[in-house]
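Collaborator request, handled under Task 6.
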Amino acid sequence: MDTRSKTSKTMVNPEKCSQPTPGKSPNLRITDKSKVPLDGPVESLSRSVNTLKNNLDEMRTDLYAEENGLSVQLRHVSEQAECNYDDISLLRSENAQLRRELDLLRSVIIRMDRRMETMDNEITDLRDRSMRDNILIHNFPYTPKEDLSTTIPDLIKQTLGVDVNFIRIHRNGVRPQNSDRPVTITAKLTDRSKKDEILSAQKVKKIAKVSLPFYITPQQPPSLVSARNKLFDKSDSLKKQNINVKISRNNIIMPNGSKYREEVPLLTNADVLQIDPSKTEKLDEIVTKSAEPIKKNGSEFYAIGSKVNSGESVMNFYQKVCIDPYVASVDSRILVYRFEERGKVTENYHDDGEHGAGRRLLKYMRDNQIVNAAFIVTRWMGEHIGPQRFTIMESLVNEVANQILDE
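Structure tokens returned to the collaborator:
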């Protein structure tokens, strides 16, 4: 094969090659070296170092700037924290001092409440002593221009066969226009022993079912009368439960010879102040219902109630209501309750100075067959309104009872 001829065909003609012009470069373009990007590792590292330096300078500026640098702000925070610590320490000290003063005031109030109770008992005893020569004559009709100092001794002699004389005798005020009941008569005997003779003779007549034109009772302070009525009410209630009890020296004696103790004792302000604070949180869980207060001649009546099923639940409800500031400041807190436990109905009340109210409200609960409920009726004392107060209290209990029983 002739390779030579083929080679000659592919060779370039030297005459056709352009010769370089003197002073001119070939087709290769040469640019400004300063404008060529340096993408080598050294240049990249240099740029990174510069960036880090700039960032570090910015951080230094943020840290150590005189006006709003981080170090200045940290110093302000430290100073504020120190001031707050001083304030907290001062508040703790003041709080401890206030707690000591509060404990002292609580102790003083408890002491005052106990002393007031002692004084009330002493005043009641003095009133009772001052009334030991007195009798009350009820249901004796009023006659115009009556002479009680003559009429009553003669009438007692005729009906009871007892000779009596009085130091003083008078009616206790004027008969109300809306009542036909005669005003009670108070009489002070010259001879104290005649009082027992009169009461004994009256008892004999009552047993014999002899009608008398009057009814005579010894005069006593209302608190003693109320306590005595409550004693007999509780005795009757226990007897209805087939518990054979008897009354001896203002106490109920149980069949085993022990004294009866109330399921829920009366709470005084001293007792309320000594309730454990941890217990008050549990008392807040008790669900209660209440009625809007009723105002009458300066008196304000309010009622609150709850469902109960034991003496403990009544006591918890009683404590919950008594720690309320409004209830703690009222003149009277009347408690009345009835609940059924193991087939027996337990019932009782506390008048708390509103004599006769608890007895009346308990009767209202019996008549309306209200059971497993407890109520507290409070009263801010205003003017004397007589028996109307009982009607108001009953209406409040009725309203609250409907709310409780409808649940």
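The cover message to the collaborator said: "The chain has a mean pLDDT of 85. Residues 269-405 form a domain with the Ribosomal Protein S5; domain 2 fold (CATH 3.30.230.30). Please let us know whether this matches your experimental observations."
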